[in-house]
Amino acid sequence: MRIEYSYLKKFLVSNESQNKLSAIFTDLGFECEVDGNCIDFDLTPNRGDAFSLKGLARDYWAFKNQDLYKKSFSSKNNLTFKRDLKVIKEIETTACKNYHLLLLDDVVLKKSLPKNIKSLLESAGIPLIHPLVDLGNFVMLEQGTPLHVFDRETLSLPISVGFSVNKESLKVIGNEVKEITKDTLTIRDESGAIAIAGIIGGANTAVSDSTKSIAIEAAFFSPESLMNKARQYGLSTDASTRFERGVDPSIQAFALERYLDLLEEIASFKLIGCNKLEKKTNFAKKITLDYQDFESFAGVKISKKFITRTLKLLGFIEIDSSKTGLTISTPSHRFDMSLAEDLYEEILRHYGYDNLPVNKPKAAPYANIISVDIKNTLRLFFINRGYQEVMHIPFTASNLDLSENKSVKVANPLNSEESLLRSNLLQSLISAVEDNLKRGFKTINLFEIGRSYKKSGRSFSEEEIVSGVICRSTKAKFWDQNSLAYNFFTLKKEIQDLLKTFGIKNYELILNTDNTFFNENSLMIKNNHSKEIIGSFGEINNKFSSEQLYGFSLLVDKLLRTNQRDNLNPVSKFPFSERDLNIVLDKNID
């Protein structure tokens, strides 16, 4: 939305420069930039209320702590709208909450449109069509609710608003014919559709130079009823842009009064009727704001006076308040407000995001994060010994080493086979080895580095684990050997080499008490310094495979927390030298 700077400055009663004004609105969340003599606003879809001078002024004056809003919008005309079924027959109340129609006769233009209005419309990219239509577009730009002007002599009253029942065609403004589908909200008279509601009017009822009688429409169409409709018909109008985002349902009558104020300055006319049909609806929502919760969210304490004043200037109505918080009612123009966090955003926008302090995190980084270097050390160790790394998803149907109530359940599993988080890596590694055996492979060395998950009461824990499974079938032969010998002691040597790599020297191999995966020919590794179990290794229980499998499972975190240091001696002051000494002695010397 492009607004001429000179007009905007006067409208806001502001002395700010163009760049300063642009910076203020950007800080308020309305991204904008200077474009020649205009300010170009890039408004977000949730802020339909800001697609008008009135909406921008509301936020600007709240930022400046100026209560100018009510003083700035008044009308010389005070119209009384009545229900007349001969003018407005019916409306589809699920999509149209109110429909106003102003009837004027004997309209005679005496002056041209004021230059400031022409300039504002042209700078906003709204073409000048006809003074009667241009005034409606100006009111839309000023107030935020679109108006549509019909040539009243072309209408067959009464008007009705509803979804099209049968497929029909309509020649719209611009003389393009649109095929209207059944789910499209239309404005109709006795002859059929005369406009696509909230998007565009029909060519046959449009204002022309010969028009003497007009009907001005102001209505509220719900965003849901118009969603994607303009795109469906290949149209993009200023009216559809606003209705899709939400128009204030309480300002239609005032918009028509404002239209008459402006029309009186350039034309003479006779007011025939002020008609409306509506379904009274309370759009307000109640939201409770807790001061303590807001302070925790914002990271800064903001005075209660500033909070209540800002919300009041933005149009929120205070229903109840206490020492701990307040309850407010949302204004009719704010469709995007429903949560306490929405109020937080409004307060912080006007407090200024740049004014928020930078608070350092109070918590230290998680101590058990395993560095990439450690994982790479493990990978190189096993890859250099002929292992292949595999990666499995952390979901499983069951954990063999844990009961179901101790397993971590997934809240939204993709299927029943992935309803739990794994508590070990051996289970999936054994399955992978079995799959490879079925495909004819006889020598299989697999390892995996990943996390395991367990539940303890209401808390959860996760640990980084490195596990591996080895299968060296006796049927596997090399060209220079009868068979490849691999047994418990081969695995033991590999594990000892791994412990040595991580500087673990003071450890003890003890009997393995966990027989979930291993048989009696297995051991556990106990760190004598920290008294912690590092892991276990040995023969895999033969219930898992017809082949002899070996495996290991080690806690990566325990490999690092050895608290052992190598003793280092100072470097000698003298250069290193090596000598071979030969001494010849008599055999008879005692």
Q: Could you list the spans in which at least 5 consecutive residues all have pLDDT below 50?
A: none
Corresponding CATH architecture of the largest domain: 3-Layer(bba) Sandwich
Q: What share of the residues lie within helices?
A: 25-40%
CATH topology of the largest domain: Phenylalanyl-tRNA Synthetase, Chain B, domain 3
* Tally of discrete structural domains: 4
**What does the average pLDDT come to?**
88
Beta fraction: 25-35%
Rg, rounded, reads 40 Å
**Number of separate helices:** 17
Distance between the termini: 113 Å
Structural class: alpha+beta
Arrangement of strands in the largest sheet: 18-21-22-26-25-24-23
Main sheet characteristics: 7 strands, mixed
Estimate the global geometry from the Cα principal axes.
elongated
How many runs of DSSP E, i.e. beta strands? 26
CATH level-4 homologous superfamily of the largest domain: Phenylalanyl-trna Synthetase, Chain B, domain 3
CATH class of the largest domain: Alpha Beta
Give an overview of the whole structure:
- This protein is an alpha+beta fold.
- The chain has 4 domains: 2-70, Phenylalanyl-tRNA Synthetase, Chain B, domain 1, CATH 3.30.56.10; 88-278, Phenylalanyl-tRNA Synthetase, Chain B, domain 3 (3-Layer(bba) Sandwich); 286-354, Phenylalanyl-tRNA Synthetase, Chain B, domain 1, CATH 3.30.56.10; 372-560, 2-Layer Sandwich (BirA Bifunctional Protein, domain 2).
- The chain has 17 helices and 26 strands.
- Strand 10 and strand 11 form a beta hairpin.
- Helix 6 (131-143) crosses helix 10 (252-266).
- The longest helix is centred in the middle third of the chain and has 15 residues, at 252-266.
- The model has no long low-confidence stretch (mean pLDDT 88).
